[in-house]
Amino acid sequence: MTAASRPATILEVAHLAGVSKTSVSRYYSGERERLSATMQERISAAAEQVGYHPNPLARSLKGGPSGLVGMLVADIRNPFSVAIMHGLEQACRQAGLSLMVCNSDNDPDQERQQLAMMSSWRIEGLVVNAAGCHSDALRQFVTSGTPVVLLDRSLADVQVDEVGLDNTAAIDMAIDHLVAQGYSRLLYITEPPAQASSRQARLARFESRCAGQGLDATILCTELHDQQALDQRLRALAPVVSHARPAILCANGQVTLAVAHRMRALDLRSGEIGLIGIDELDWCGLTEPGITTLAQPTDAIGQAAIDCLRTRQHDRSADRQYRAFAPQLIQRGSTQPPASH
Amino acid sequence: MTAASRPATILEVAHLAGVSKTSVSRYYSGERERLSATMQERISAAAEQVGYHPNPLARSLKGGPSGLVGMLVADIRNPFSVAIMHGLEQACRQAGLSLMVCNSDNDPDQERQQLAMMSSWRIEGLVVNAAGCHSDALRQFVTSGTPVVLLDRSLADVQVDEVGLDNTAAIDMAIDHLVAQGYSRLLYITEPPAQASSRQARLARFESRCAGQGLDATILCTELHDQQALDQRLRALAPVVSHARPAILCANGQVTLAVAHRMRALDLRSGEIGLIGIDELDWCGLTEPGITTLAQPTDAIGQAAIDCLRTRQHDRSADRQYRAFAPQLIQRGSTQPPASH
DNA sequence: TCTCGAAATGGGAACGTTCCCATGACGAAT
DNA sequence: ATTCGTCATGGGAACGTTCCCATTTCGAGA
């Protein structure tokens, strides 16, 4: 392989191998079987000699596969998003695809723009983990033949595959665990579920489950920067002697972080007040008794998303898929009540 | 603007406006001034009507600007990398560019592959935050006219711009702070600095500074998963009555995390043992007395990297730039020694 | 009035592919 | 021997741009 100043083209390879560009193209477009053995050898040798790699630009301009998968993410600084991104990236690599990540910073306008951009780059598939997503933009992808997968979201009015946490199972596991540990006064804290269907699903399950089981449950639905709201409810939760033990269930990692911060500020002891959060985070083992979490299998989720894309690529009219993954309980001190006396 | 099933082409706009495609091309390639006022209006109107956006694929195939900036990152799960990524992304957006992020997962082979991929997508600039980077691959970018910026790394044998933390200032700030707080027996913990120049720079500065000042300083250079090495040194550090107060300086966020974990496991109290880390992390305010950190201005660093790229784009032979940013001290309990008696 | 240069505009090739449609060869069936 | 289908291969157009090189127009200077 010679290091050329300009990348080699298919024509150079064809010339060197003494074959037509069409044959070289076939060699690289998964039609090798159609070529005779000698031809394959000649092409392979020539390509190696000049260090040829097909130009994805030209390829996808012509309408061929771009080898590009897009990911639209609402908040790139959310550790969950990063974890998923990592999973996607791995899965893409394994499938010979490249991931193009677009962060919308929670701005619907940007979302639109990013979608347009990805579309103009002719991505072969799109993974969406964002809120304000105007459905018609997504539908445009679908009708143009680009598979779309919704990640940790669901949209009633657009028919696409969905992958994410099994929210019902997660909430059930959390509640079961809390109850088993002796907590019976539950506070569920979530960000406003407006656009985010998974927040809605978790919240709904929490409500119905607690109602069904007759648990003493309350809900706090707040923006995380609203420290007052948080503080007020946390204070109100402080345990009363000879009263049911209180516990907090955090709807996601961001909530867990905010709650941990305020509990520390208010000098509330977790354990005494139970604390469990959905999403595992680097530092959950670090705070004093450690925070119990439900870890999402993010790599598996990413892999599943790519699987969905590829399946649908090969069969555009495949059945709509919903893939929900169960979380894993990581038990730490925050759900270990102090020995009663 | 009509929603067309297939995106509009320059030809359709030209036709509709009754002008040549060349003129439309000029309109979109920053040569508007060369067009008469009437022509500009006609094109603008026609483009709006059919919802035209130039196709970046075709554009960059022909050799025009792709509007794509590549980022090669060694570990996408490192919060520092994510923070930088966010900064880059913002800066790109502002400049009308798109960011293509490639994660190499610390695998040199993948690095090569990712670089090749980005090159084949004709990125206009490359930001590198990775270790095993074979210099010749980078040089190839440079010679082909693609500006490269090294982020938090430096390479002796390839002439490119570099942006990152002012390592000297950071180490000095950390040491000064520790000394001012009454710590004088210092342990510097870092991952092996082999390929990473910033690790080398920090380590070197720590050594020379401590030597110059006659401080009782030791160094632990270890892989973070080597729990034994860590534990041993941490135990050895335990404070001795009527002896100089010990403190730990963590070379980066990953180290801080690992050290915090082991300190907790060994029941070592930070504060008593001083603890300061380079890189601010979400949870540093959460652990018991809080961990003092030096926060890097990641958004500014990202912005600076893009600035470098653009400068060099316009003047390929501009002077090589080194831009180093000072960190900000965020003081918490871990560098607050308990009141002495 | 003629010439000339600048300014405004357009035509066509090229970028590196893919894919449709030949073309020739060859063995099998008539 | 002739016809046919199949297989291996090649030529050329097309994808949507940009850019080089005309061509046309027009006002100014001779």
Task: Summarize the structure in words.
- Chain A is α/β, with parallel strands linked by helices.
- Chain A folds into 3 domains: 10-54, 434 Repressor (Amino-terminal Domain); 68-165 and 298-325, Response regulator (Rossmann fold, 3-Layer(aba) Sandwich); 167-296 and 328-335, Rossmann fold (3-Layer(aba) Sandwich).
- Helix content of chain A is 43%, strand content 18%.
- Chain A is built from 12 helices and 12 strands.
- In chain A, the strands form 2 sheets. A 6-stranded parallel β-sheet of chain A has the order 2-1-3-4-5-11.
- In chain A, strand 8, helix 11 (253-265) and strand 9 form a beta-alpha-beta unit.
- The first copy, chain A, is elongated, with a radius of gyration of 26 Å.
- The model of chain A has no long low-confidence stretch (mean pLDDT 91).
- At the A-B interface, helix 4, helix 5, strand 2, helix 6 and helix 11 of A face helix 4, helix 5, strand 2, helix 6 and helix 11 of B.
- Chains A, B: Residues 8-63 form the HTH lacI-type domain.
- Chains A, B: GO terms for molecular function: DNA-binding transcription factor activity; transcription cis-regulatory region binding.
- Chains A, B: This is Transcriptional regulator.
Could you provide a short overview of the structure?
The structure is a homodimer of 341-residue chains. Chain A is an alpha/beta fold and 341 residues long.
Topology of helices and strands:
The structure is a homodimer of 341-residue chains.
Chain A: H1 10-17, H2 21-28, H3 37-50, H4 56-61, E1 68-73, H5 79-94, E2 98-103, H6 108-120, E3 125-129, H7 135-143, E4 148-151, E5 161-165, H8 167-180, E6 183-190, H9 197-213, E7 216-221, H10 227-237, E8 245-250, H11 253-265, E9 274-278, E10 292-295, H12 298-314, E11 322-325, E12 328-330
The structure holds a DNA duplex (30 and 30 nucleotides).
